Amino acid sequence: MKAEVSDPALKAGLHSILLQPLLTEKITAMREANNTVAFLVHPDANRVQIKQAVETLLKVKVERVNVMNVRGKVKRLGRFSGKRSDWKKAFVKLKQGEKLELYESA
Q: Of 99, 87, 103, nearest to 28 (Cα)?
């Protein structure tokens, strides 16, 4: 039973969950080997919200979602020190036979 999202406010909320796709060599290898893609997601988003956002916005079926909180690094420039922001990434494993057109154009 898949509930369609017809409310524009709820759909806008789904857009705020997925911030951007992550493209690295390691994630590209994961995509080719395991049909897994990665996204930078909102720090307050949980697995259920991420799964719903990917299925609704990208129109693919999701098998599982793994999330990881990444701590920001402390950076120094001379005697000045600062900290990069903490962020969250999600690894989304797509069901067998599903593809994302987002990555296929490259």
A: 103
